[in-house]
Amino acid sequence: MTSKRDKQVLGQKLLAAFRDAGAVEIAPDILLPAESLLDLYGEDIRARAYVTADPIRGEMMLRPDFTVPVVQAHMENGAEPARYCYLGEVFRKQDMGDTRPENPRDNEYLQAGFELFSREASADAEIFALFHRLLPPYGVRSETGDMGLLRDAVRGLPLPDPRRDALLHHIWRPVRFQRLLARFSTPAMARDFPVTRASWAGLRSESEMVTRIARLRADAATAPLPAIWSERLDRLFAVRGPAPEALAALRELVSDWPGIAPAVERIETRFAAIADAGIDPAQVVFDASHGRTTMEYYDGFTFSFLAGHPDWPPLATGGRYDALTAVLGKGRAIPAVGGIIRPGLLAELEAT
């Protein structure tokens, strides 16, 4: 059992390494305004955030992560390029879906992190190489993905905008995504909406219901997605292996699916930069489905570093979140990528 002091000591070492890499330390408040921030998190964090009502400040929440408040602070008055680092606790409720008494999730745990705001194409490789240098003593393995690849694939499906948007919205939820894909791949059943003289009742207005009925009728008339596209998506989601092998599989897909070619080229360029940083791509796993169940603000490169304990969460995670800066920048945006390390898990590894 590791002590809080052990975790803090490791956290301070990581923080010092981040400062040596050019980052400025930043300390977001522990209590944050909930209204604007909760909408930026994925379902998992929204469900597990500690939210309370303050009589003066309104709805507030205990800090569930650092990236969103750091981006918010940077977009208000930060210059570019910029590098930030931080160390502190985050707070999340227990995951009700994990009932294993021997391995409950922590309600509160320490995070050390690094965020990079830069227009340089090498930013992804810079972050990954930094984390890779810090974590090898712990015998971890690294995995990467690219949510931009998956989003580009869905955008290229021959579907009407409402169906395509629905799939993009649920790309983070594999089970729901597959159900929608199956529904869109079979002929829709026509629905009967008989004319009635009865008065409208319920929470929706008459105009809302008329609009909804028109949308359902239009959806029923939509041709199903040809089976070949579901097969291609299945092939894409299943791509996993050492980076050179995974890239070869992606290049084969490009021959049938030119729409993902720019994303595949971007991934190849990233691995070339990672190799230039002294990391053998053959030692890095690329998983096309990596990151599909993590924070929804990632929209490009994703990565994680894992220990040899199957029940443990990742020791470190991160990714690219360009769209988040546009939302918080109110029209101004800058490419950004970052990641966090959990000193508590590293301390437990040292103790074993």
TrEMBL record:
Domain of life: Bacteria
Any single Gene Ontology cellular-component annotation: cytoplasm
Class II Histidinyl-tRNA synthetase (HisRS)-like catalytic core domain location: 8-172, 222-338
GO biological process: histidyl-tRNA aminoacylation
GO molecular function, one term: glycosyltransferase activity
This protein's record includes keyword Protein transport: no
Record's keyword annotation contains Transferase: yes
Keywords (A to Z) from UniProt: Glycosyltransferase, Transferase
Binding annotation for L-histidine: 65-67, 92, 111, 115, 292, 297-298
Protein name per its UniProtKB record: ATP phosphoribosyltransferase regulatory subunit
